[in-house]
């Protein structure tokens, strides 16, 4: 009977309501975290900022997404339909993350990329929140929450980095020929793309 009831709840999208009902009746924090999906542990990142500084510098939406692991509503983000050529960077620390050459329309309502600019630019962490398993993506430099990684992307990688617009900034492609060749080689162009701009 319980399995059938759970199946019905999952199909109707009421799992979150059940989850809240169960977690509110559980008083022990560790047990409650086990039921709803434990958050990742604290990690030391190469670049750090005070929370006061981030609250002053970021919009409330950017802060919520990057620091509190929030998610913007589908089809509302600034970069969802963005088609300009350039580099998408972390809104918190400015680290280069994705090339516009790997952006595609997934129909999900969030900016989607099939590959990283550099493999080490994003850290992957298991995320068991909301009663499901996903892979969280965070900036490897500052730990800002970016979004999630799914295995339903296009070739050649088959990956879909589903990223919140609020976690990204954009640097337009430099018109210098050397920048385009180094971007195609894996992104060593971040220095030339940012010439004349203040880095955070």
Kindly describe this structure.
The strands form two sheets. The chain has a six-stranded antiparallel β-sheet. A three-stranded antiparallel β-sheet has the order 2-1-9, with no helix packed on it. The chain is built from seven helices and nine strands, in the order αααααβββββββββαα. Helix 2 runs antiparallel to helix 3. It is α+β, with helices and mostly antiparallel strands and 200 residues long. The protein folds into two domains: 2-36, no CATH class; 51-186, Peptide methionine sulfoxide reductase (Metal Binding Protein, Guanine Nucleotide Exchange Factor, Chain A). It has helices at residues 2-11, 15-25, 29-36, 51-57, 60-68, 177-184, 190-193; strands at residues 86-90, 96-99, 103-104, 112-113, 122-127, 134-139, 145-150, 160-163, 168-172. Residues 1-40 and 175-200 have low confidence and may be disordered. The chain is 28% helix and 20% strand. It starts with a helix and ends in a 7-residue tail after the last helix.
Percent of sequence in beta strands: 15-25%
The overall pLDDT, averaged over residues, is: 77
| Strand arrangement, major sheet | 3-4-8-7-6-5
The level 1 CATH classification of the largest domain is: Mainly Beta
CATH architecture of the largest domain: Beta Complex
Order of SSEs, N→C?
A: HHHHHEEEEEEEEEHH
Q: Examine the coordinates and then state which fold CATH places here, giving the name of the CATH topology of the largest domain.
A: Metal Binding Protein, Guanine Nucleotide Exchange Factor, Chain A
Total beta strands: 9
Shape: globular
- State the fourth-level CATH superfamily of the largest domain: Peptide methionine sulfoxide reductase
The low-confidence runs, each spanning 5 or more residues with pLDDT under 50, are 1-40, 175-200
Number of domains: 2
Termini gap: 56 Å
Major β-sheet profile: 6 strands, antiparallel
What percent of residues adopt helix (DSSP H or I)?
A: 25-40%
